[in-house]
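Section 3.1: Structural characterization of target chains.
Under the original work plan, the team committed to producing a structural model for every single-chain target entering the pipeline before any wet-lab resources were allocated. The record below documents one such target. The sequence was received from the expression subgroup and is listed exactly as submitted; it comprises 308 residues.
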Amino acid sequence: MRAHTIGLMILAAAIPAAAAIGGPVQGFVVDHGSRSVRPVNGLPGASLLGESLELGGGVHRAAFDAARGLGLVALDSGVLVATGGSGAPRMVEGAAPEVDMLAVNGNAGALYSRAAGRVQVVQGLGGSLPLRAADLPAPGAVLCLAVSREGDVVAGVEGGVYLLRTTGQTELLAEAVRPTALAIDDLSLLWADSGTGEVWKADAVKPFAVRRLLIAHVGGEVAGVAMSPDGALLAAALSDTRSVAIWNVASQVREADIELMAAPTRCQRMDTAGVFALNEAGTEPLLLLDLSDRSMPRVLFVPMKEKE
């Protein structure tokens, strides 16, 4: 293996003053220090965390579709749908208490409560009708969660990766010892099995019927997986080694290991193609993985906006 180690790229010194950072919103992350949701403003390599969204405070966790600016947010008072624009937040009726996981894709969202043992789906996030969480059959204690744009939920539990349809049907997509990370888009589904070290990809047909093994041995506890926009690179965020491993998909060669300042907890897609949030803000530095240039995968540090 011809892997090499790349240090974290800290670009704070090259970032303009806070007042000069504007432009697009890359996405939204939870700031655990203020227990709020904050936007990531600017472009990769020149970004700052913006001011907190007005959601009422007490945020526990959140998941956003960055391209749509829609998200599910779990607060002390319940679960709501938030927008990055001027739309008012809307509460979700019937949501389970003590939400541990959230996922959003387009107008569909999913949540999981370990205490209640419930998986739920919420549809119509971007509409104007009242929102209500609908229960789906939970195949076991959920380790990772994703949702399709159609509202079908994918859940990883010890023993397998399951498709939970909105019709109430449950389908075993693949056997897995301990799946710990999922990633889904319009074309494919990725999952990482930290029990075997394998990463698999399934195409979104029939659905997810055509599948192939991408990586045979990751060698760590996978908190998130992502692919470059051209599908040439696969990244696995490893929480136990505080690093990101990068593979060439065609050759299955581990080309790089990027050391991190904080343990990654996710690979959350941002609005710029190939850019992913590796963690949340507040207690540790916010880190973005940039796979947009396959010749130079990098990790970027996002500082907070200075108080004016």
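Residues 4-302 form a domain with the Methylamine Dehydrogenase; Chain H fold (CATH 2.130.10.10).
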